Amino acid sequence: MKRVAICLLLGGLIVWGGGIGAVGSTESMGSLKLGAQLYDNWLKMTGKTVEGNHPAYPAEAKKSGSSTWRCKECHGWDYIGKDGRYASGSHYTGIKGLYDVRTRSGQDLQQAIAATGTLHDFTEYLTLEEIVSLVRFINEGLIDISVALNADGTARGDAEAGKQLYAANCADCHGADGNAIDFKGDKDGVQGVGYLAVDNPQESLHKIRWGHPGSDMPSLIADVGLDDAAAINILSYSQTLP
Ligand code: HEC
Ligand code: HEC
Predict the structure, then answer these.
(1) CA of 54 to the centre of ligand 1 (A)
(2) Closest Cα partner for 242 from 197, 202, 208, 206?
(3) CB distance 172 to ligand 2 below 6 Å
(4) pLDDT by residue (tens digit) across 22-33?
């Protein structure tokens, strides 16, 4: 009996213990990627619909509708909410980020997302598996944005090394110049990898590390098996593209 209990306990620890640095199983990498993409846009990932603004979205903030329900809209692409990119501008909400809670227990974080009876209760929209994936992403998938970016938004990687990585991992889809896919068809000119890397390096880094929801773009970490340093090098090179 006792032995079974210990095995279960250890099993539980292993499930929560596999960081990016550890040898992650395919299954745990899949869950991490799912969590990261749900953080990006869980509405697109689940096909669920919502009405009006998220109840916790401040009335005085500038966005409206389904975008106000995305985790990134309140907590930021850089995971530091009001202390980062969203400190001002049209995405300002005054809401804190999640980077400082990444070391909290999985159970604790799960409770914050499935906070029944509060404004922050996502249980109506997300399955337990999805919530657990989000928790995994918060525990294991966040990056210290100051390691990746300088205060002016320039990436702190090696663009020369990034050039090779870009050619091997991105150019087939985005073209050698980064402009084979136009991200914002409604604007003049092509807004490709180079444009977004400069305009929104925080978002670009999240997409490079985790892929783009609803597309076949791979996650550099979960699918390709490369690390954050490689992602930052690619971002540095991307910032040199037209
Ligand atoms: C409309 C804005 C909004 C959205 C969307 C949102 N949150 Fe939050 N979240 C908040 C606010 C406000 C808090 C409370 C922050 C505080 O304690 O000051 C919070 C707190 C949290 C906490 C606990 C943090 C802490 O410091 O205790 C976690 C974890 C969290 N959110 C995860 C998520 C995830 C995952 C999603 C997407 C499924 C999400 N949030 C979507 C506004 C939002
Ligand atoms: C298999 C094809 C494929 C590969 C490989 C790929 N992407 Fe993508 N990428 C896409 C598609 C498709 C989209 C979605 C474009 C859209 O719908 O706007 C996308 C989206 C993006 C976005 C976000 C655009 C937005 O609107 O938010 C960025 C940034 C990006 N890719 C950069 C990269 C980089 C850098 C690499 C290499 C590490 C890469 N991609 C590899 C296909 C790919």
Answers:
(1) 11
(2) 197
(3) yes
(4) 445 788 899 999
pLDDT digits (tens, 9 = 90+) for 84-119: 999 999 999 999 999 999 999 999 999 999 998 999
**How crowded is residue 137: how many other Cβ atoms within 10 Å of its Cβ?**
26
Whether 216 lines ligand 2, by a CB cut-off of 6 Å, is yes
Which has the closest alpha carbon to 176: 127, 132, 238, 94? 238
Q: What is the dotted CATH code of the domain comprising 146-238?
A: 1.10.760.10
- Note the pLDDT of residue 24: 57
**C-alpha 151 – ligand 2 centre gap (Å):** 25
In order of 23, 125, 224, 232, the CA distances from 19 in angstroms are 8, 27, 16, 19
Q: Is 207 in the pocket of ligand 1 (CB under 6 A)?
A: no
Residue owning tokens 């969203």 = 86
Task: Give the angle subtended at the CA of 111 by the CAs of 92 and 49, to the nearest 5°.
Answer: 60
Integer Cα distance of 20 and 226 in angstroms: 10
Residue 90: other Cβ atoms inside 10 A: 8
